[in-house]
Structure formats: structure tokens, C-alpha cells
Amino acid sequence: MVSGWRRRMRIGVQGHRTGVAIGIWLLVAAIPLACLPLPAVPSPTPEHGASATVTPIIVVATPTSLPQSVVDEATAEELLLINLYERVNPAVVNIQVLRPAAPSIDADFFREGEGSGFIIDQEGHIVTNNHVVEAAEDVQVTLYDGTILEAEVLGTDPHSDLAVIDIDLPAELLRPIEFGDSDNLHVGQRAIAIGNPFGLEGTLTTGVISALGRTLPAESLFAIPDVIQTDAAINPGNSGGPLLDADGLVIGVNTAIRTTTGVGTGVGFAVPINLVKRVIPQLVAEGHYEHPQLGIRGLTITPVLVDGLELPVERGVLVSEVTANSPAEKAEIRGGSAEVQFRGGLVSKGGDIIIRIDDREILQFEDLLSYLVMQTEVGQEVTLGIVRDGREQSVKVVLGARP
């Protein structure tokens, strides 16, 4: 959990914007809960004073019938959600983990946690978040019908906050979920979450996709691109559960909420399913996933930065630092040559400015991050369009693996 997030992000690249994000990022694995009593409501007490006879006035309103079209639309919405839930919920599981904790009198050296996951094939593979099962000593899965099974962690990836666990169950008893396409989403379209908030199994919440293309801090020094933002209620325990479209296809893996209170406030985030499609097969086969990297730190160029550093271009990524022995260093990409005071902090100036990678124009840091994570792989050669000393040139770089 990161408070007042202002983290430099690596993409094999690291970067940040000028500005401060207010709030808390909360990974939504469940925490132990206490039942709080509702406050008692006192009975009405008549005021003291002279008695009087009060004649009640009753206003009777005549109900206004809704147009049939509105009734039909509401009925169709209900039927859609009912049918979707009945079809998809059998694929959603509750995950309980037991992991080592700091020794204390009360903890007994272990702590429990909960999250969600979903079955992806008839071999018993289940997708969830890395932070749900990380360092787990014991993992149990509860299916929709109450069946409890031991699970094995096959692979984890902190860079994308994804993991795969496995259960042993006959194929005919498994109800795998279907994947959608997160590249074909629109702000405003329906979003449905199914999971286990606060341990309440099989909970469905609805909303819309409220934004696309967000960048989310990961558990590593790197960041997750193309994240889906939704106002469907997501709370502790929803981590690892599916975010669905109106057809019941998975479009993301619920991962985090932005909050100042520790509970969902209408801003939830899901790892896009197209990143899941890239990462999961390698986690199943090898237990880990190799993310490609350039090996730089950089800043999104803004009008303020252009004026302050007298930059020759108005858009792109200013390279502030090149990591030693990285692909960028081998390709002789230049980092900043001097640090200057800028708005109360230090900024490196004099480095290359990346304005293009292959055929993709780079307008901001997130464009570079997204392209590397979603479109490339380790060992692939890419061509960077850079501006150096006021002149544009091309540099070829063979991508390496993140540490």
C-alpha cells in the first residue's frame, strides 16, 4: 500500500510526471474483519408541554405508471445480469492463504489472507494476483458449490501482479471462464466484478469502465500499463477476481483500489486481460515471466519542462538516466549530463529525447511503457527515434530482461 503516491516508474524504463497524486493505492486482498454493532436508535420521546389535539393530515399520491419501454429495459438488464452470474460464477473461486508473519504473541507466526481467482481451463489452472499468494505456505481454494481443495502455486509475476495456481479436479467438474479483448474497450461500457469482498463469496457488483490506459504502481520498481479503471465496487477480498463485460468475458483482473479510507470508494483498477494472455502461459510453463526492458529512467515532456529546460521538442520522453550494462547503454543511449533545480527538485538535463519506438509515436512516458510491455519481448530489436543535440536520429536496441 502506497500513501500519497509519487513513485518513479521503471519500464526497463523509469519515469514520473511532475505533480503529486493524492490518496492511497490499496491492493485488495482481504484483511481480518470485526463485526461492528449498529448504533441503537432511541424511541421518539414526546416533548413536554401543554397537551393539544393534532389532526393528522394524510396526503395520498396517485402512482404514476412507468412507460412500458422503461419497464422492459429494466427487466432486460436484470435478466442479463442473472444469466451472466449463473454462467460465470462457477468459474470464480475464493482463495485462502496461510503465510509466515512477524513473530508475536497473537500471530502464532502465521497470518491468514483471502482473495479471489478464476478458472481458465479444464486442467485446473486458476488466475489470481501475485499479492494474494505471494510467500504463501498453504493455499486453499473454495469452489462455488462449497468444495474446498488444496492448491499449488505454479508461477508468480510481481511486475504484472499476476499468478497462477493449480487444483486437481476432473475436467468435467471444471467450468472455465472465457477471455475478452482489452484492446477493444470503451469508457462508459458496462463492467461487472465477481469475487469475495471481505470473504463474502460469490458477490457480484456492477458499474462502468470509467477510464482506460491508467498506469498502476506494481510491487516491483516497475509499473503496469493499460490498466482499466472502473466504478464497480471492488473491496478487500476482490483481488484476483474477474472484471467482465456484458457478454461475461473477462476483460481484466481486479487488483487495487484508490482510497483514503481503506475501502472501495468507486475507483477500482484491473490488470488488462491482454497482458494476462501474454504472462499466464509462461507462468504455467516456467513459473516466471520475462518482461522486456530498455534500462532507462525518464520523464514525460510537458510544456513546463520544455520552458524550464529549453527543450527542442514539445512531446516525448526525456532520458534522465541509463542503467549500467543495460540494452540502452549498449546502444549508447545518453542520459542526463547535469542536474538542475526545477520546481523544488532536481531534474537531469542533456539526455536523449525518445519521440518514437518502431512505428509508434511517443507522446508521453506511458506510451513507451505500454509498447514495451504489450508489444515486445526479450531479445527483440526495436528502433528508437531520438532527438540528440537538436537533431533527430534512429538507434537500434536489442531488448533485455528486467532484473
* Count, helices: 6
By secondary-structure content and strand pairing, the structural class works out as alpha+beta
Give the CATH level 1 class of the largest domain.
Answer: Mainly Beta
Unreliable stretches (pLDDT < 50, length at least 5) are 1-11, 15-24, 31-52, 104-110
Number of domains: 3
Query: What is the name of the CATH superfamily of the largest domain?
Result: Trypsin-like serine proteases
How many β strands by DSSP? 26
- Give the terminus-to-terminus CA distance: 22 Å
Q: What is the level-2 CATH architecture name of the largest domain? A: Beta Barrel
Query: How is the biggest beta sheet arranged?
Result: 8 strands, mixed
Sequence-ordered SSE layout with sheet pairings:
Layout: E1 2-3, E2 9-10, E3 13-16, E4 24-27, H1 68-88, E5 92-100, E6 110-119, E7 125-128, H2 130-133, E8 138-142, E9 148-157, E10 162-166, E11 190-195, E12 203-217, E13 223-230, E14 242-244, E15 250-259, E16 268-272, H3 273-286, E17 292-293, E18 296-300, H4 303-309, E19 317-322, H5 327-330, E20 338-342, E21 345-349, E22 353-357, E23 360-361, H6 365-375, E24 381-388, E25 391-398, E26 400-401
